[in-house]
Specification:
Layout: E1 2-4, E2 19-21, E3 25-28, E4 31-34, H1 41-45, H2 49-59, E5 64-67, E6 72-73, E7 85-87, E8 92-96, E9 103-106, E10 113-120, E11 127-133, H3 141-151, E12 161-169, H4 192-213, E13 218-227, H5 240-243, E14 255-258, E15 264-269, H6 272-275, H7 279-289, E16 319-322, E17 329-331, E18 334-335, H8 342-347, H9 351-358, H10 369-383, E19 387-388, E20 391-396, E21 400-404
Parallel strand pairs: 5-15, 7-9, 8-16, 12-13
Antiparallel strand pairs: 1-2, 3-4, 5-6, 8-11, 9-14, 10-11, 10-12, 14-15, 17-20, 18-19, 20-21
Helix pairs in contact: 7-10
């Protein structure tokens, strides 16, 4: 009992449609409302051999470690050494072609999801997109439009676009794993399982809707869906003994895509705030958007929604830091609100308490999470009340970036 999703999880032709759990409807006060399906999306995917095999294949590879300051990957893999990387942070999206970057990557996702799109056609070179999604408020249609416009730029009649979709993120902690009960409403009391599954479900149904909208010129294939339950370590998981994760932890937290081949693998970038242009400033935008709520350096809050029809708010655009038509990485103009003095108390808390108040998944965060929180608070205090102009950066000596003047900014 399912709904046709208009994309497949097999590349072989002819492609068979992938069916998603059916969303039931009910009426309340004369208005039709969508409800939760009988089976969650990740539970459905766990019964599909093509997606299970893709997940197992991804997990069978070791996580590629990158140190951008050294302009190389740490693992001994000659195919990835000295790669030009494009790093995408939370609530950001980056688009690139092979000439601009060899690898596009995002990491540090727990309840967040990383979405990779990779398209080829006879009309243009391949286009790679990476989006780091932390809620259901974003406009996924804009990502599909970017691929349509890229391949139809020279010829509007191009109809042979093939789009591969990869999703990694979310996890379902074991029931005995303690959940946070914070006195700060909206941050520490978030249930990671509910958060992850709501975001997984919204992304997948939204992708299906966009695949249907673009079905005439574009064939969409869901190649990877390592999400929620499928992305959670447990004693019975075939890769549990190898990855070293405790039960109830996310197996994959980062994803990289090769822009020439479309191949994906798990990835982790060391100290991105030290190597990426204005990453602390970019992360601070997450706090500014939630000024009316207690801030979090990684506020992986998911609005209560099930499918696309249940989202009532106007979707907002992800922050575009890089495009296929521009040679620069752009840090947008930043309006810094007045500084809440109570953040000074938050800054001085011990790490364990700070995690409790600022993370939806404190048992899964990176070792530098608290340092990042404190640097973000320091940035806010230093620039409170200011409007910081947009900045542009060009690649300099491999993966190092140098600020340049762009009159159009």
């Amino acid at each position: 009992d399912g709904e046709k999703s208009f994309f497949s999880c097999k590349s072989t032709k002819p492609q068979e449609p992938l069916y998603l759990p059916k969303l039931t409807s009910s009426s309340s006060n004369g208005q039709k409302q969508q409800q939760q399906p009988r089976m969650t999306v990740d539970e459905c995917f766990s019964h599909l051999p093509c997606l299970r095999e893709a997940s197992d294949s991804l997990l069978a590879q070791s996580t590629q470690e990158y140190n951008i300051n050294l302009n190389s990957s740490i693992n001994n893999n000659n195919n990835n050494k000295k790669s030009k990387l494009l790093y995408v942070g939370q609530s950001e999206v980056g688009h690139c072609v092979p000439l601009q970057a060899d690898v596009i990557v995002s990491d540090r996702a727990t309840t967040c999801h990383i979405l990779m799109l990779y398209s080829v056609s006879s009309g243009n070179v391949p286009l790679a997109t990476c989006a780091h999604l932390d809620s259901t408020r974003y406009n996924i249609a804009e990502l599909f439009d970017a691929h349509l416009q890229h391949h139809q730029r020279r010829n509007r009649s191009t109809q042979d676009i093939e789009l591969d979709i990869h999703i990694v993120g979310g996890y379902t902690p074991e029931q005995h794993q303690p959940q946070q009960q914070s006195s700060l409403q909206g941050v520490g009391d978030c249930d990671a399982t509910a958060t992850s599954r709501k975001l997984t479900q919204w992304i997948v149904y939204e992708l299906a809707q966009q695949a249907q909208r673009c079905a005439e010129p574009m064939t969409c294939t869901l190649q990877t869906a390592l999400v929620s339950q499928l992305n959670t370590s447990n004693h019975h998981h075939p890769h549990y003994d190898d990855d070293g994760a405790r039960p109830g932890q996310p197996l994959a937290r980062g994803l990289a895509l090769h822009t020439k081949t479309g191949r994906v693998w798990m990835a982790h970038v060391q100290n991105p705030t030290q190597s990426q242009p204005q990453l602390i400033r970019r992360q601070a935008q997450l706090w500014f958007r939630q000024q009316e709520q207690p801030p979090s350096s990684q506020p992986e809050q998911v609005e209560a929604s099930t499918g696309p029809a249940s989202v009532q708010k106007q979707p907002t655009s992800l922050t575009v830091i890089h495009s296929a038509t521009q040679p620069t990485l752009v840090v947008p103009e930043t309006t810094v609100p007045l500084f809440p003095q109570e953040l000074l108390q938050l800054r001085n808390l011990p790490d364990a308490v700070l995690l409790h108040y600022t993370s939806t998944s404190p048992l899964c965060e990176e070792d530098d999470f608290c340092d990042s929180v404190r640097r973000t608070i320091d940035f806010w205090q230093e620039h409170a009340g200011q409007t910081l102009p947009a900045e542009a950066y060009k690649r300099h000596q491999g993966d190092l970036w140098r600020q340049v003047v762009v009159p159009s900014l």
